[in-house]
Amino acid sequence: MTGKATTPAPMTPVPVPQPESDRYWEGLRRSEIWVRRCEGCGKPYFYPRDICPHCASAKTQWFRASGRGVIHTYAIVHRAPHPGFGDKVPYVVAIVELEEGVRVPTNIVGVEPEPTKIKIGSRVVPVFEKLTDTITLLKFKPA
Amino acid sequence: MPVESSLARISGKASIVGVAESDEIGKVPNKSPLQHHAEAARNALEDAGLKLSDVDGFLTAGYNGYDVAEYLGIQPRYTDSTSVGGSSFVIHLAHALAAINAGYCEVALITHGQAGRSDRARPGPNPGLPAAQYESPHGIMGPPITYALACNRYLHQYGEDRTRQAMAEIAVSTRKWANLNPKAYMQAEKMTFDDYHDSRWIAWPFHLLDCCLVTDAGAAIVVTSASRARDTKKNPIRILGVGEGHDHSMISQMPDLTSAFGRNTGPQAMKMAGVGHGDFDLTMIYDSFTYTVLVTLENLGFCKPGEAADFVAGQRTAPGGNFPLNTSGGGLSYTHPGMYGIFLIVEAVRQLRNECGDRQVADCRLALVHGTGGSLSSTGTTVLGRA
């Protein structure tokens, strides 16, 4: 052994897909956004689960969303909530409303993390950011 | 839906007869969370003039009930570990009222203990929960960030500058109350409006001084039947109205970011008690953040949506103002170990008993207590009155 031991940079939290969400995460790996809609009441919903949270119907289907949306709200994180984000602050967290009618928690990238540069209601498009070999995160940038 | 006539029948039919904090609160590196539970339990029973062996109902949050009850050495016949964040303990008051009136128990003990600052063991989140899949990987973790997301939507809807001023009003007025409370973590620290505006960003739109403290503390409450309350040491404080519930867990699932569940629990508790907004001598609202107070005042109906900035203007909520709010110094400046709700009740009871010294609200007879938990997820409201 030569040199000194290095401590790997702490990792941000990695999602653990559940049986009902595997298809969502497989979709993101291919740069596709798959969400669910109820065949009973017709309403879309996020996050994926087998039973509709609007009407409890078990008849639900996956459909591919366009990825176009608007910023419903955002915040700018200056104090890292977890060691994995220590070298990422300041960063922008947000809730984006997709044009299909569901809201997703996410990050806005490709903008200066300044309140004057980011507007609620402004249009965004998806960015697929590979986190690990199996996990890709859905983020957004200004349209 | 809650049955109003049934609720009205138990209004006032149980009383708080003991309240206390743990022996030391603030920065307490040499004590575990369970020690805070135990000290507070002993102190609250002493305050009531009751013994551990009198307790037959036990309620706690953050732990399974049997973990804390075993540590304390009690074997309850009614147990409730309802754990929905910082509102839990206000909700426990409702459950104690119901349990006592149903005959499940006669003396209910509610405890809390948390070493938010000094805990040696910090459990991580359950990686299978939706929050761990969909929010945490984006760095949406913890109340400063989730509440900031809600707050910014409010700023967008109702105006940034006027809301910012209102957030400063709450930070400064709450600190003034803390300056009058010997147990407050910030008792010796004054705060000016400039201090507020100059404090660093934690998660924009929140400055450091928008955020509650992180402390080590415990508290406990003893509740008993109206008849048994007559034999306790101090004036019993009656539980007149209650309401509880939640409408989401993750902030990204909140149906309307500017409307928390207090829109339901506030009116229910007030109706059950037969009182209105103008009747309260004291209002205790969970101040996890300055913003939480503003949106809660609106949700509870003290003012209309978007009008909280006018409602709190001019230090109306400070000592000497005509709307005494969070007179302990709140989570912002007194103590906040993680799930603060129980401390709202401790202060309300002390005010209603006229025990608050320099910060005593004159002729305090009726108080509203409102807890919020999670990411504006759960709320519990209660109306407390002097017998």
Summary, kept brief:
By secondary structure, chain A is mostly beta strands. Helices cover 6% and strands 36% of the residues of chain A. Chain A is globular.
Unreliable parts of chain A: none
Q: What is the third-level CATH name, the topology of chain B?
A: Peroxisomal Thiolase, Chain A, domain 1
Along the chain, the helix and strand elements of chain B come as HEHEHEHEHHHHEEEHEHEHHHHEE
Structural class by sheet pairing and helices of chain B: alpha/beta
Overall 3D shape of chain A: globular
CATH domain class name of chain B: Alpha Beta
Average pLDDT number of chain A: 95
Structural commentary:
Chain A is mainly beta. Chain A has one domain. Chain A is built from one helix and eight strands, in the order H-E-E-E-E-E-E-E-E. Chain A has a five-stranded antiparallel beta sheet. In chain A, strands 2-1-3 form a three-stranded antiparallel beta sheet. Chain A is globular. The mean pLDDT of chain A is 95. With 387 residues, chain B is an alpha/beta fold. Helix content of chain B is 36%, strand content 18%. Chain B has a single domain (4-119, 213-386), classed as Peroxisomal Thiolase, Chain A, domain 1, CATH 3.40.47. In chain B, a hairpin with a 4-residue loop joins strand 10 and strand 11. In chain B, the strands form two sheets. Chain B has a nine-stranded mixed beta sheet with strand order 3-2-4-7-1-8-11-10-9, with helices on both faces. Chain B has a two-stranded antiparallel sheet with strand order 5-6. In chain B, helix 1 (4-10) packs across helix 10, helix 6 crosses helix 7 (160-178) and helix 7 (160-178) crosses helix 11 (290-299). The A-B interface holds A 12-18, 21, 47, 72-82, 85, 88, 90-91, 93-95, 103-107, 115, 120-121, 131, 135, 137, 139 and B 127-128, 130, 132-142, 144-145, 148-153, 156, 200-206, 250-253, 257. Strand 4 (69-77) of chain A pairs antiparallel with strand 5 (201-204) of chain B, so a sheet runs across the interface.
